[in-house]
Specification:
heterodimer; A: mainly alpha; 10 helices; about 80% helix; B: alpha/beta; Rossmann fold; Alpha-Beta Plaits; 2 domains; six-stranded mixed sheet; four-stranded antiparallel sheet; 14 strands; binds adenosine-5'-triphosphate; binds magnesium ion
Chain lengths: ~240, ~325
């Protein structure tokens, strides 16, 4: 299977040159720590680590994945090395899977950093792990593909960063992690249902605290739909914008 | 899957009415050509003529606005991916990874073509040796000198032994020995049967390497022929250049009347050029000028070359083109 040799090689190169670099790895550890500490400082009473955990996990994934695509895709396109990939005899679908797999993997790892931290301070008994893993992977894939969509839509790395904040911050506040979706005004509530993270966060709440509002099947289906749509739109944009 | 034929008569690449329009620029305008298997095809033209755009369309980095592209007879206009396993591409600018070493870059490029680990490491090492880069193999590409970068980009283009090689100005901006080395390497590839599509603005390079040459100007293909035919066209021409002194007026009119078998051109105040397809008799010409109190201090016979063909078909003086291009070294 020749194209798979290329797939592994691209993934391995991105892992080595971008993901497993010390600044990136430390970011993956500091980020969840900072969020957890923020809640500690904010609240007067002792925080309920377990109720915070899904939120911190989701944010770690969201920020860990979306920012990476600006480097692996936008930066390489700008530096023209991406052209080399476009010239390779591998289908564009496989190429883009190779370019995004690293971010999915990295985002998934990031999600478990707060879990490991939490395990030291609270009892994680009763967590439905399979549901947590499914949720984490689906959030990682959908956030990565959102990052890809952004990375393909811009031509400069800094644009990718600002543009992704345009998506990230509203997502953080509307996904139900910090304010329950029910308390939002109707227009915002509608908007929150157009955000993949809402479904991922709900699944995480279900897995960690048995507090899901939506059936897991619905969340999985919606997330898969988001993943497919974002990936296909990104591929179409690459074909239209980069093969000019 | 498209396969090569290994038959020298076969057409490897065929472009028909190939056109590319960017917003308000018609970069390539209804270009037709074919490249035969195993030949070195030169694509010459001044800056902005549309050479790179043509390569991009052929290799799959740009979508043609109109026209068709065929590889070994198969139409791939809508999907150049189908032919990409046949191509090696050396772009005009480096597109390797600055953070990888020379060796890693080559191995990575090889893997994109499905080469296995052992195979790609062997091949990378051999190419690094061939290009005198073995000592720099472990250094990051980012710290390579300009010439070293160029050589590594070429090595990356041929790492998978492609049957068709596209080179976009391979020797621009590198020193004389390296340029020679690259030309030798291209000659070797040709002798092994590689089909080569080469753009260059070094006429001598095209003259030395290419069997057929196409001239492209403002997106239009203005001439395409074998090197021999191109030069033969003007070989029967005789060009004489006179350096004059004491000449205040333009004498081309009177000269034209007196010697109707030639055409006269005033190059500067002191230089006059005559072209004719008859053998030149200098004495009557010199006498004609001296009768008008003009001293002929020198008369030089110029042997026509591909350079003259280029100037004749493009109307562009080469010196100008070179000075615009050569920011780095000269590659003669
Ligand atoms: N992406 C693009 N968008 C708009 N115009 C473009 C684009 N790419 C090329 N052009 C224009 O198309 C024309 C041909 O450019 P091209 O790069 O093919 O020339 P070239 O023959 O390779 O020149 P050079 O010798 O300088 O490399 C130029 O006028 C150029 O400005
Ligand atoms: Mg060019």
């Amino acid at each position: 299977m020749k194209p798979w040799i290329a797939y592994w090689s691209i993934l391995r190169k991105d892992m080595r040159t971008y993901y497993l670099k010390p600044p990136n790895v430390s970011w993956g550890i500091i980020f969840p720590l900072a969020w957890t500490l923020m809640f500690f400082i904010k609240s007067d009473s002792a925080v309920d680590v377990r109720s915070l955990l899904p939120g911190v996990m989701a944010l770690s994934i969201l920020f860990g994945t979306t920012s990476m695509l600006a480097v692996t895709v936008t930066f390489e396109k700008k530096g023209r090395s991406f052209d080399r990939l476009l010239l390779a005899p591998i289908p564009l679908e496989l190429l883009m899977l190779a370019k995004t797999s690293g971010a999915v993997f990295f985002g998934t790892l990031n999600a478990f950093v707060p879990v490991v931290m939490a395990a030291f301070v609270v009892d994680l008994g009763g967590v439905i792990w399979w549901q947590v893993v499914v949720a984490v992977v689906l959030i990682a894939v959908s956030s990565t593909f959102l990052g890809l969509f952004i990375a393909v839509a811009v031509s400069e790395v800094f644009e990718a960063q600002t543009f992704s904040n345009f998506f990230r911050f509203p997502m953080v506040f509307l996904c139900g992690l910090f304010f329950p979706v029910e308390v939002l005004p109707l227009p915002l509530r509608t908007l929150s249902h157009a955000i993949p993270l809402t479904y991922g966060a709900d699944m995480l709440h279900g897995g960690v605290n048995h507090a899901a509002r939506m059936p897991i099947v619905l969340s999985v289906a919606v997330l898969l739909g988001f993943c497919a749509a974002l990936f296909l739109v990104s591929l179409r944009n690459i074909r239209q914008k980069w093969i000019t | 899957m498209i396969t090569k034929m290994n038959d020298p008569g076969t057409v490897a690449i065929e472009a028909c009415g190939l056109t590319k329009r960017f917003a308000d620029v018609l970069a390539v305008d209804r270009v037709d050509f074919d490249v035969r298997e195993g030949e070195v095809f030169g694509f010459l033209g001044p800056n902005g003529a549309g050479k790179t755009t043509t390569i991009n369309m052929l290799t799959g980095l740009a979508r043609p606005t109109a026209g068709t592209i065929r590889y070994f007879g198969r139409d791939v206009t809508q999907n150049r991916k189908k032919a990409q396993h046949l191509m090696g591409v050396v772009p005009d600018e480096s597109n390797l990874y600055p953070e990888l070493t020379g060796h890693e870059n080559l191995c990575f490029c090889a893997s994109l073509y499905g080469m296995r680990k052992r195979e790609r490491e062997d091949r990378a090492r051999r190419l690094l040796d061939l290009f005198d880069l073995a000592d720099a193999a472990g250094r990051k590409f980012a710290v390579y000198s300009k010439g070293m970068k160029r050589k590594l980009v070429i090595a990356a283009g041929i790492i998978h032994n492609p049957p068709i090689l596209f080179l976009d100005e391979p020797t621009t901006g590198i020193d004389v020995p390296s340029a020679r080395q690259i030309r030798q390497m291209l000659a070797d590839l040709k002798s092994q049967g590689t089909t080569i599509f080469l753009t260059t603005h070094y006429i001598e390079e095209a003259e030395r390497l290419c069997e057929r040459i196409a001239f492209i100007v403002d997106g239009k293909l203005v001439k395409l022929d074998t090197l021999n035919n191109l030069v033969r066209d003007i070989q029967n021409q005789h060009v004489v250049e006179f350096t004059l002194s004491g000449c205040d007026t333009d004498l081309t009119g009177p000269l034209q009347n007196a010697f109707s078998d030639g055409t006269f051109e005033r190059i500067s105040d002191t230089v006059l050029r005559m072209r004719t397809d008859q053998p030149v008799h200098l004495a009557p010409l010199v006498r004609f000028l001296e009768d008008r109190s003009v001293d002929v201090t020198e008369a030089r016979i110029i042997r026509p070359s591909l350079e003259d063909v280029f100037v004749a078909v493009t109307g562009i003086e080469l010196e100008r083109m070179r000075s615009e291009k050569d920011k780095g070294g000269r590659g003669r």
